[in-house]
Design brief:
Elements (H helix, E strand, L loop, with lengths): L25 H4 L6 E6 L4 E7 L8 E8 L1 H22 L18 E4 L1
């Protein structure tokens, strides 16, 4: 389930609760599997690289890169927190294991991983 939130438009000419039609192509609907995300930021944007690591393969490939404003990155964080809480209420606590590989990767800005 995908959850999103749009703030109400402040324009007097438009309704306050405007609907937006979102198109999802068949290709995008298939999704891309990722088991590692590397995050960097500058003063104006956040860059999230979604990576697929394969066991025993020393090379990892970035499968998708998403670039967003700091405001949208914070909205994504809040939406993920909300969805994780709902998931855990329905299916139980997600157990975290900290066995992510450690390797230096920095393409500018501050780096984090998920």
């Amino acid at each position: 389930m995908i959850h999103s939130h749009m703030e109400d438009q402040k324009d007097d000419k438009k309704p306050s609760n405007q609907q937006i039609n979102v198109e999802l192509t068949d290709e995008v609907a298939e999704g891309i599997y990722s088991n590692l995300a590397m995050i960097a930021h500058s003063n104006s944007e956040f860059v999230i690289d979604f990576i697929r690591l394969m066991p025993g393969v020393p090379k990892a490939r970035v499968k998708s890169r998403i670039i967003m404003t700091p405001d949208h990155a914070k909205r994504l964080l809040n939406a993920l927190k909300d969805n994780i809480e709902k998931y855990e209420q329905a299916f139980g606590k997600i157990e975290s294991n900290n066995d992510a590989p450690e390797f230096p990767m920095n393409f500018g800005g501050t780096l984090g991983e998920a």
